[in-house]
Structures are given as C-alpha cells and as structure tokens.
C-alpha cells in the first residue's frame, strides 16, 4: 500500500491561520505588532527565494518585516553594525541572518551578536542550551520544530520509537536529536544520529520507526535502506537537472520518494513537506518573541 502523504503545506496553513488570528488579537487588545528582520548577505538564488518567501509570509499574517540585502563583499564589521542596530530596534522582535553567508563572514560570531531574546532561529548558544535541557523559555529552531509539529499533526507519537536522524548539522540534525530525546509529551524517542563518518548508514536507517533525513544529497535514501511501515521525513531540497522541466531542473529531496513511498507508512513530499513548516514555525517564534518582549502570556 502506498504511504500516506504528510501534507506539510496543509498543516502549515492550519498553524499560520491560527497565528494570523493571534496577530490580529495582539493588535486589537494590546496595540502591538510582531516584527521580523531578515538579513541576506550575497546573492545566492536559493537564499533569495527563501528570504522572499519569509517576508511574504510576514505580510500575509500581519507581521511587520524588514528585509536587509547586503552585497556579497560585506565585511564582518558592517554586518555586526546592522545586527546591533536591529537588536536595539523596538519594532523588530526577531532577527534572522540567512545561512549560509559568504566565506568572509564568521557565522558563529554573527549568531553570538544577536540578542538571544530576538534569536527566532534558535542558533544562539543560550537558546540551544535551553532547548537541550528542556527549558521552554527560549526558542525551538524552526525546521526541527516544524518536524515535531508534522509528527504531532499526523498522529505519530515518537514515545518508545526508534528515531534515526541522518545528518548532524547545527540547523537540523543536532537540534532534532535534542528534541526527540526529551522526556516530554510528543518526544521520548530512542534516538540514533548517523552522519558522514558512519560506516554503514543503511544498517541504522533500516532500524528506524521514524527516519529523518537531512544530508543534502539528492535521493540518497533508497527503499532498501528503509523498514516497511516507517515514517519518513525528508528535509532535503536539491536541484537536479531535468531537460523535461521548463526551468531545466527540478527539486528533489534526500529520499527517493517513489520507491520509499511504496514501503513507508507515511512520508513527506518535496516540495510541500518540511519547507512550509519551517516558515510557519519562524512566524510562531516571531510572535513568541513579541509576546515575551511585551510581557504578554
Ligand atoms: N538556511 C537554511 N535554513 C535556514 C534557517 O532555518 N534559518 C536561517 N537563518 N538560514 C537557513
């Protein structure tokens, strides 16, 4: 039987509809508008698309947004100056610097310069630490948070299940590990993380009840690497050449969707799976930052 499709677009729409109602309530009852500043250094086409989508979503939900596009040769000092200005701007509750930046930019230093109370990406060490110890006072990073919500809305309870994460990035793999292992409702999984130094990745992925793949390799996970009835979450977004496509390419995930879909119980499509959830949770974090700033519960 083909897998049930986990429709990230539909789930994200339900979450953002609720956030739009909340934004209207904040305006009506408190005269407050959440604000997000998005910073892009350079002209990477994929990053430009992501940033524009984020700004558009803010507009749809009634969130104030600022887009700062800096030239590829921007220096650290210039970027840090902008961060400082945004940290002090009362209209801005969330700051996001699109990753990856050009090579002269030290991403660690940039993240460290963001006021942790405005760190809606949850990249700052203070917020990463809070997440790890299960302190809900900080933020949860957008993509892993979106995946937790996908599982929740699809009635997949990770408790007691074996979750295998493929990839150990700071943006997805590591925080995913921290969230799924928490002693908390919607978590409580047994978690394995495999990566580029793991000798036989398939030996681990075949044991997964929940398989989360974020390694940035097109269609890397094939049917022989997946257990019958697994829940498969594909975080990948890779451009591959396709002479039949109007643009000359198409986007595929890290999972060979057709063959794995024939074996899995549930699977996320690419696009329309994890991507829309990342943006929905960014909006959620921006509202959270705003409410915290104004002391609204
Ligand atoms: N690049 C890819 N994903 C993300 C994300 O969630 N946040 C930021 N800032 N950059 C990204």
CATH architecture assignment name of the largest domain: 3-Layer(aba) Sandwich
Structural class: alpha/beta
Any idea what the shape is? globular
Average pLDDT rating:
97
CATH classification class of the largest domain: Alpha Beta
Distance between the termini: 45 Å
Order of helices and strands: EHEHEHEHHHEHEHEEEEHEH
Question: In which order are the strands of the major sheet placed?
Answer: 1-11-8-7-5-6
CATH-assigned fold name of the largest domain = Rossmann fold
Main β sheet profile = 6 strands, parallel
| Residue fraction in strands | 15-25%
Helicity level: 40-55%
Number of helices: 10
What's the number of domains? Answer: 2
Enumerate the distinct ligands: guanine
CATH homologous superfamily label of the largest domain: NAD(P)-binding Rossmann-like Domain
Total strands: 11
Low-pLDDT segments, ≥5 res: none
User: What is the rounded Rg?
Assistant: 19 Å
Explain what the structure shows:
The protein is 41% helix and 16% strand. It has 297 residues and is α/β, with parallel strands linked by helices. The chain contains ten helices and eleven strands. It has helices at residues 8-30, 45-61, 76-88, 107-113, 125-133, 142-153, 173-181, 201-205, 257-261, 274-294; strands at 4-5, 35-41, 64-70, 94-97, 162-166, 190-194, 210-213, 231-234, 238-241, 249-252, 266-267. The protein folds into two domains: 31-117, Leucine Dehydrogenase, chain A, domain 1 (Rossmann fold), CATH 3.40.50; 142-276, NAD(P)-binding Rossmann-like Domain (Rossmann fold, 3-Layer(aba) Sandwich). The mean pLDDT is 97. The protein has a six-stranded parallel beta sheet. A three-stranded parallel beta sheet has the order 3-2-4, with helices on both faces. α2 (45-61) packs across α10 and α6 crosses α7. Guanine binds at residues 96-99, 121, 142-143, 171, 278.
């Amino acid at each position: 039987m083909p897998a049930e499709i986990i429709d990230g677009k539909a789930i994200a729409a339900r979450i953002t509809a609720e956030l739009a109602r909340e934004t209207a309530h904040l305006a009506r009852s408190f005269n407050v508008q959440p604000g997000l500043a998005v910073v892009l250094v350079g002209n990477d086409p994929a990053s430009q698309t992501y940033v524009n989508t984020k700004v558009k979503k803010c507009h749809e939900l009634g969130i104030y947004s600022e887009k700062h596009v800096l030239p590829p040769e921007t220096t650290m000092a210039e970027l840090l100056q902008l961060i400082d200005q945004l940290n002090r701007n009362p209209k801005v509750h969330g700051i996001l610097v699109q990753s990856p930046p050009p090579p002269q930019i030290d991403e660690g230093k940039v993240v460290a310069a963001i006021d942790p109370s405005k760190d809606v990406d949850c990249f700052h060490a203070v917020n990463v630490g809070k997440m790890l110890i299960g302190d809900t006072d900080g933020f949860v990073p957008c993509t892993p948070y979106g995946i937790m919500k996908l599982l929740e809305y699809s009635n997949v309870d990770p408790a007691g299940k074996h979750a295998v994460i493929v990839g150990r990035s700071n943006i997805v793999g590591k925080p995913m590990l921290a969230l799924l292992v928490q002693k908390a409702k919607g978590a409580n999984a047994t978690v394995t993380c495999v990566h580029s130094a793991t000798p036989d990745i398939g030996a681990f992925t075949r044991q997964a009840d929940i398989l989360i793949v974020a390694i940035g390799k097109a269609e890397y996970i094939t049917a022989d690497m997946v257990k019958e009835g697994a829940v498969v979450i594909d975080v990948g977004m890779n451009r591959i050449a396709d002479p039949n496509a109007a643009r000359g390419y198409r986007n595929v995930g890290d999972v060979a969707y057709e063959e794995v879909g024939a074996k899995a119980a549930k699977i996320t499509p690419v696009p329309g799976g994890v991507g829309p959830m990342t943006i929905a949770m960014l909006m959620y974090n921006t509202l959270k930052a705003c409410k915290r700033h104004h002391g609204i519960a």
